Structure formats: structure tokens, C-alpha cells
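Escalation from tier 1.

The customer reports that the assembly of two entities below gives different C-alpha cells on two consecutive runs. Tier 1 could not reproduce it. I'm attaching the input and our single run for tier 2 to review.
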Amino acid sequence: MVDTIRVEKGVTASAPPPPRKRRWRRGWLPYVLLIPAVLLELLIHIIPMLAGVGISFLQLTELYLSNWRAAPFAGFSNYALVVNFNGAIGQALLHSFVVTILYTAIVLAVSWTFGMAAAVFTQRAFRGRGVIRTIFLIPYALPVFASVITWNFMLQRDTGVVNQLLLDVHLIHSRAFWLIGQNSFYSLVVVAIWRSWPFAFLILTAGMQSIPTDLYEAAAIDGSGAIGQVRHVTLPLLRPVNRVLLLVLFLWTFNDFTVPFTLFGSAPPTQADIISIHIYENSFVSWNFGTGSAMSVLLLLFLLVVTVIYLAVGRRGERHA
Amino acid sequence: MRPTKLSTLALAAALVAAPLAACGSSGSSSSSSTSHATLTYWATNQGTSLQDDLNVLGPQITKFTKATGIKVNVQVIPWTTVLNQITAATVSGKGPDVLNIGNTWSPSLQATGALVQFTPSVMGQIGGSSRFLTGSLSATGAPGKAPTAVPLYSLAYALYYNKAQFAAAGISSPPTTWAELIADGVKLKKGGHWPLAIEGGSVAENIHMAFELSEQQGGQFFDSSGKPTFNTPQNVAAVKQMMNFIQTDKLTNPSDAQYSKGTEALVDYATGKTSMVIWQAASGSLKQLGMNAADIGVAPVPLPSPVPAGGKPITSMVAGINMAIFKNTKNMSAALQFVKFMTSTPEQESLNSTYGSLPTVSAAYADPAFHTPAVTTFRSILSSSAAPMPPVPQESAFETAVGTAIIHLYADAATGKAVTDSMIAQALTQAQAQLGG
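Tier 1 run:
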């Protein structure tokens, strides 16, 4: 007993104190290395975001475009205008919001289901699995503009291959419009799913790599079939992956600009008036960037609230699990 | 070797400085010496494609560079994005040195303060304002203010009709009233052939036609004090007439509601798919598209018969392209030289005869190229039955808001939803709300 204490004391006493210089360097080096990232983050995200918030309080019209610092302060009048759902602008914003929620919900549900099904299908090794995985990933690997403009050609009424195909198999009897009218919403949903399900597939496949195979074996011994194994092994173990995946897919789909803009141009049909384009259009139509910014800030707040609630609920669920 | 404190600091500094330096470098040209300057020029799409414009402008620019040593980097901007790009350039202060603008946007862009004012002394440097036609010069800014652009190409709308198809249908002359146009259309329509093409997805084409038809009905989109008055019975009637081309007259293929590139309806006319199109002077494009010159007929746009009380016999808006200098240019002197070159008599003759538009300087009309029957018709339309779009700062917002509303109404008509007066009235009210009033 005594010996032990003596030894411990000896160790403590004999350990040389770290050189002050090195301790100092270890202290500041990480921060210096962080500076570029922090500056870029400020430059690319934080400052433009704050500028947007600032603009939402200004009456920034065409008269002040070249000297926007001189634009008069508008208080909350821009916000009052866009949330007045009895007025034309507020009504249109609300309509666009509802369309976007519906669009996001469908795209999210279908993309995740497709991604999950494909990931489970390619989980076990079989001949040609690599080729199939590659084919699945093609929509995600293609440049957005190039692929969506191809959809635009395919969905044309008179010259598009979609109408031709549907006519040939007698599913329709006269050429339908796919890029205007009610069908435009379904077109957008299909193209967005086509774009985003491979991402769900990719992430879920990666997540499944970390599930030990012996768990499946154990489940099989316990009498679980294929569906039971997915329910009792795959899904619970993918929970952390799914939590992030669904959030990211939600944010991407909700905010998506490129797909609808490429598909419909600058005047999207009312039935597919996605909120990001709606805001863009509002800013550039009226040249009142204050109103557009107020809409953007409200959208940002909405997404923040959704994200925070989602993460909080997810964390509580995890704790109870 | 362990990195020293100094080298770590240097690395960190370099990492920080690189992106900042990249941000600081301007995209625009910055040479101060005129002869070595490089100008950035945003040209609008006047030909059949962006490439066509580059082909037309290229040799002229080479001529200019040879004479002055000033290089010009031409970028042709499609009509769908040009206004947004100008707006973005105005806000950021980073844009081209010289740019083309739709002449109807002149009062709006003048109000932004982003363009150089052509005061008498600046005008003097490009040869003075007396060279230009008065009509063209009137659409370069709000009345009573120094213009912020000079006219480059002058244009007007007319009814283009296919003479061969008209003759085959037993029609001897172009329609002068809308009733005649509909009657002719019935004779011309057969099988998959539609009589009239429209560019229903184009903001610009929609708003121009709505304006012209509203003038014929005696309507106005802004009152004398400059306040918007979109939802009036006359304006509703004008838009309804446009919808009826698809929904009741059935002269127009519903697919035209999707035409938005600004060339598709013209291509249908040029290739004989339709017999008529209401378009701005386009002989250059029609030639390029391979249309037989003998088949091209040009007549003023029809009028209602009788013209309703208060209605005006207007068949076109005063159309055209203006050239402006961006205020933030670092090459003011070179930019002025370029504007002077583009509005010089030989350039006006060459460019306008290629595009089929009309020169904006009077001296160019000595050229026999501008004495063809088509050009004579356009000159007479411009001098006797053309009205300028409302010269208010909100003009461009008005064009986009109402033009977009009409796109949606056309989409309804095309997809089989009956467009009623009350739907049009509601759309016009909503468009006016976007302007904040």
C-alpha cells in the first residue's frame, strides 16, 4: 500500500512540465486554422442572411436600386403586407406555401420509400449489384439543368415523348398538357422524385453497411422473414441515418429552386407555384425587394422552427428508445 | 521538419487572403486607357437565336476594334432573363459597360439611376440628338428628364400573313378588322393547320398585345397621374379577346400557350404551320428561317369595327431597342465611342437591314434597303397608328405583372378551363396589387 503511494508520487513528481511555448501554440493553432472557415462562413452565409433581414425592413424599390443604402425604413410594413391573407399578395403567398408543403410531403415520402426499397434490394451481394447501384444513382449524378431541361422536352405537348408514349399505349386519347394546368404539379413531383430518390438510396445504402450481418442471422433464427428483418433490424438501426436524411431531404425539396425553374421558366403555373420561385418572382416583378426579403425571412423562420421541433422530437424519441 | 510559428501564420494568412482577393477582383473590365479598353456589351436577342446575334454583331465589332483599338466582349442575353440581369447588375453595381434595353423599360431603368444620363453635352459626344428620329427618341426616358438611353433599332407590330395560303383559301386581301380576321381564320383552318400563332408564354408579347387591344377598346393601364388602373372593363375586354383566339374563335393551337422563347410563334409562321402571326418587324429572321420572300405579307394589325367609344385606332406600340451606358463603367469614353459607332449611319443601315428593323437615325433612310413595301408599311404604322407604352417608372413592373397574369390565363384557356371576365378582372387586380396599389 505504502509502496504504491510512493510510486504514484514518484511518477507525478518526475513527469516534466510541458514547455510553456508548446502549450501556448496548442492553444491558438486550432483557432488560427479555423479563421478561413469562419470568414468564409460569415461571407457566404451569415452576412447575406443578415443583409436579407435588413432589407426586409426597407422600402427598397426601383428608385433605390443603385443606391440601396438610401432606401427609407419601412418598419414591419413589408411583413404586414405579406401576412395579410385577405390581400392579393398574402393570398398568393399562402397558396404557394400550401402547394409547397404538399409537394414536399409527396416527394419526401415517395423518395424515401423508393430509396429504402432499392437499398434493401441491393443490400445482399448478387451478380450485377454494382451495375444496378450505378444505374440507380444516375439521376443524382447528372447535372440538374441538363437533366431537367430534358424532362422539359419530354413533357412538351406536341413534340414530347411522354405524350407520344401515352398515346401509343392508348392511355390517353388526346395530347395532354404537362407543363401548364393541374398536370404541371404532378410533372414537378415526378421530376423532383426522380432527382432525389437516388440520394435517399445512397445514404440508406451507406447506413446499412454498418449493420452487422449476424443480427440478420439472429433474426432469421428467431423466425423473422425478409419483411420482419427489415422491420426489426434494418429500420431501428437506421434510425439515426433516417433522422438526418429526412431533414436534409425536407429542406432541399422545400427550398428547391433549380428543378421548378428549369422545368417551368420564370412564370411557373399557379398549380405548381413553389415558394422559392414565388419569392424570386415577387422580388423581381414588383422590384420591391423589401417584400421579397420579408417573405424570405418568414420562410427562414418557418424552416428553423420545423428543424428545431423535428430534432427535439427525434432526440426525445431516441432517449425513450 | 516541424513547421515554425511563422510558416503556420503565413499559411493561415494565405488561406484567409485567397478568397478575399478573389472577391475583390472585379468581373468587369477596368482598363483606364481607352485604346486598350475592353468593353462588356449586353446585346438583346434580335435574331433567330443567340448564336445568330453573335454572328451578326461579330463582324461589326471587329470593324470597331480595328478602328479604335477598343475590344468588345459581346454577350447576347435572352429576353426571358434580360430584365432580371439588368436589375441584378443595378443592385450590385457590377454589370456591363454598354447594354441594350427594351425601349419601354426606359422610364423604369431611368428611375433606378443606374444608367448614364445623355445630357446635351454627352449627346454631343455621340454626334448630337438631331441625328435621331423624333419618334424613336421619345421612348428613351420619362418626359422632361434627360434620357438615359439612345434609340438603336426601331420596331413596330404588324400582322404577318402568308400570301400563298391566303390565295389558296380564296382570300384576296389581309383582314383589316378583327371580324374579318376571324372569318379568314375559319377559311384557313383545316386538319392540323391553325390560322394564327401566338407566343402565349411570353411576358413581352402578351403585354404588348394587351396594351394595343386595350388602346383599341379605349382602355388605359395607368391614369394621367401615373396611378395603375388595371382592372377596367376595357382592359378586361382586351385580354378576353386574346383568350378567345384559343377558347371561342379556335384560331390558335392551344399548345401556343406554352410558347415562351420569343421565337416559336414566328417559326410556326415561317415554316407555314400557321398562316398569320402578329409580330414586330422580322424580315431578317424570316429570311434566316428560309421563308419564301414572295409569301410574306405585312399589314397593319386589324381594328375593331366599329371602334368602340373612346377607342383609338392604334395598331402597335412604339417598339424598339435602346442602347444605354451603365453608370459604373470604368470606360466611359470607350463606351461613348461604341454607342456612337453603333448609331452611326453605316452601322444603322447594316444592322437594321440584317435584322429587318428600322433605323433610328434619319440619314440611314437614304439606303434603298429601307424602301421595300414591308419597311414602308412599318414606317407608316410607326408614324400614324403607334402609341408609346405608359412612360411611368413602374412600366417594367407593369409589363411583368400583367404579362405573367396573361400567361396563366392562356394556360387556363389552353387546358380547357373557360376564362371568364371575372377571372380576368381578378387576375388584373392581383397584378396591380403586386405593384403595391
